[in-house]
């Protein structure tokens, strides 16, 4: 699914540019929503990890290609505890790419603004998929947090660098090691993940509920929408 979406964007440069604009907008929104966590000595690294690895506009084509063969390779190469983490990541990334593509289809070539973003969000709709996106984001975080409770797993991950590189899974290896170290340093992720859940659900509800009359050029007066860029 992700590869088909990528090929569709490559065939339409304007669509690709619009998807990138959506991703950049969403990354900026995340930075505004979690400015306090990004400034927190305890939570800054985890917030930055989410910002760059789950919300960023970066090129994840290498990681996408690895997802295509992820299950057999993981079962063969990685410790059992790691498999579920990567499956959550693969599912989240596939869903996010699909939703971003649908948002871009609605937006077209028009400049992206907060108002246009709200309108596109409502046109794409499907609250259950947005909730699934939130749930999967939290599942990735919870899985990484769970891995940090396995005393020997960090050493096992380090030993997997060579085999993972040989199997073409270097990007996944990097993600896992960085995620493990980031969540280990946080010393418990419950409060962090609870904050993310609450704020993401509140914003999603505000975006779906926003009343945007035809012809208007102003956002509704809902304070929750003030975090949009």
Characterization of this structure:
By secondary structure, this protein is mainly α. The two termini are 30 Å apart. The relative contact order is 0.15. The protein is globular and about 60 Å long. 74% of the residues lie in helices and 0% in strands. It has a domain at 34-97 and 125-211 and 223-227.
Overall form: globular
Strand content: under 5%
Instruction: Characterize the largest beta sheet: strand count, sense, and whether it forms a barrel.
Output: none
Distance between the termini: 30 Å
Portion of residues within helices: over 70%
Q: Structural class from helices and strands?
A: mainly alpha
Question: How many strand elements?
Answer: 0
Low-confidence stretches: none
Oligomer: single chain
Average of the residue pLDDT scores? 86
Number of continuous helical runs = 13
Q: Nearest-angstrom radius of gyration?
A: 18 Å
What is the string of SSEs from the N terminus onward?
HHHHHHHHHHHHH
Tags for this model:
mainly alpha; 74% helix; 229 residues; single chain; 13 helices
